[in-house]
Specification:
Blueprint: E1 7-11, H1 15-25, E2 31-35, H2 38-48, E3 52-56, H3 64-72, E4 82-86, H4 91-99, E5 104-107, H5 112-190, H6 196-222, E6 230-233, H7 234-250, E7 255-260, E8 267-270, H8 272-292, E9 299-306, E10 310-317, H9 324-327, H10 346-357, E11 361-367, E12 370-378
Parallel strand pairs: 1-2, 1-3, 3-4, 4-5, 7-9
Antiparallel strand pairs: 6-8, 9-10, 10-12, 11-12
Bound molecules: adenosine-5'-triphosphate and magnesium ion (MG).
Magnesium ion (MG) is lined by residues 281, 284-285, 346.
């Protein structure tokens, strides 16, 4: 185990003792720090965060027990193993050492090999414990993330199911309306002098019905979870998504401009509906910013491109920048500047979709007067 990036602090008020201990511990390869009093030791611990403290018990002003107690009471340092080194060797002193949080106890004069082995063992243990803790923290975070992600996904799926049942319920009445519209239109057309206005109205009804059916179909598909990764066209998929939600934006005079750089279509490999969900989260944020800042520029630009390895989509809006202190946090779960109107889930979900599921990358960057988000998805 490599211990060279670790610091061992040796605390003793007698310089010769420090010298002897450091000669013994040198072969471990760790950095060695020294303190000649309790106060100095506490200062060094705060600055250098050692991985082990070799602590003399008998020192003027503040003895080793006191130093150890202070450490063990501080959550930041309580994990650091403390080994007492002392000439006192009666059982009461030993018990006192363990009671105030020491992990081991070595009596002076010590055997050099014993000191070496004890320090090495406790240091290695500490490093292993630290790694286990890191792994556990990571797993816990992952678990939380997945739980939230799954609950979002199942919400999406239940909206999809609801839409499916509504569209099933509406199929019958819509086709009845459609049939009687067609019937009325034929009757009108068969008249000697058909009424143009009536025919126009009937055609409008027909178009509206068609629109309702296709919207229902598209929304139903949008909320359906992807079963597997497929190849899909970035332009086509972005177009469908923008089309689906364009009504919401038109109300606020927001215009979404979609175009492909180099005029070519780019096919990427991933979960298509997930991509659409990621894209709508970013577009919705851009629209929020335009509305919130009453921006004069109400355009959102969605541009597709490729660098030969990735399909690249940039989403740009000019409603002001994201404050520098926030830009590193916007992808964090629950980070929002919208108070009760935001949940802070949009971008964290977007990141999960693009990076964890689709092995892509999503980033945000301030530009003059605005913000550009970049989504990269692998071509294959
Ligand atoms: N285009 C943008 N312009 C300015 N700020 C933005 C933009 N996009 C994102 N942000 C900032 O990032 C924050 C996080 O966005 P995110 O979508 O994760 O959450 P939200 O929009 O606040 O809530 P919701 O979960 O409902 O989407 C926003 O609150 C906003 O401060
Ligand atoms: Mg959002």
């Amino acid at each position: 185990m490599n211990l060279s990036d670790r610091v061992i602090l040796i605390v003793d008020d007698v310089s010769e003792n420090i010298q002897v201990a450091s000669n013994v511990l040198k072969p471990l390869g760790s950095a060695l720090s020294f303190a000649k009093s309790g106060k100095e030791a506490l200062r060094i611990i705060k600055n250098q965060k050692p991985s082990l403290v070799l602590l003399d018990v008998t020192m003027p002003e503040m003895d080793g027990y006191e130093v150890c107690k202070i450490l063990k009471d501080d959550i930041l340092y309580s994990d650091i193993p403390v080994i007492f080194v002392t000439a006192r060797n009666n059982i009461d002193d030993l018990v006192k050492g363990f009671n105030c949080g020491g992990i081991d106890y070595i009596t002076k004069p010590f055997h050099k090999r014993e000191l070496f082995i004890r320090v090495k063992t406790h240091l290695q243990n500490f490093v292993i414990q630290e790694r286990i803790k890191e792994q556990l923290d990571y797993l816990l975070q992952e678990h939380k993330r997945l739980k939230l992600f799954n609950s979002q996904q199942s919400k999406m799926a239940s909206v999809g199911e609801m839409l499916a049942s509504i569209s099933h319920q509406w199929k019958q009445p819509l086709s009845a309306i459609s049939m009687s519209t067609a019937d009325t239109k034929i009757k009108e057309l068969l008249k000697d002098t058909p009424d143009e206005a009536v025919i126009n109205n009937l055609e409008t009804i027909e178009k509206q019905i068609e629109f309702m059916i296709s919207t229902m179909h598209n929304f139903k598909n949008f909320f359906k979870p992807d079963k597997e990764k497929t190849k899909f066209s970035l332009m086509q998929s972005s177009y469908e998504l923008i089309n689906l939600f364009s009504k919401n934006f038109i109300e606020n005079n927001i215009v979404i401009n979609l175009h492909s750089k180099n005029e070519r279509d780019i096919e990427v490999f991933g979960y298509e509906n997930m991509y659409k969900q990621a894209l709508i989260n970013i577009i919705a944020n851009a629209a929020d910013a335009i509305i919130e800042n009453s921006s004069d520029n109400k355009d959102i630009y969605v541009e597709c491109d490729s660098d030969g390895e990735y399909g690249i989509v940039t989403i740009t809006n000019y409603a002001g920048q994201i404050p520098e202190e926030n830009i590193d946090k916007i992808f964090d779960q629950f980070f929002t500047t919208k108070g009760d109107r935001g949940s802070g889930i949009g971008l964290s979900m977007t990141k999960q979709i693009i990076e964890d599921l689709d092995s892509g990358k999503v980033t945000a960057e301030n530009i003059e007067d605005g913000v550009v988000f970049t989504i990269k998805l692998p071509l294959k």
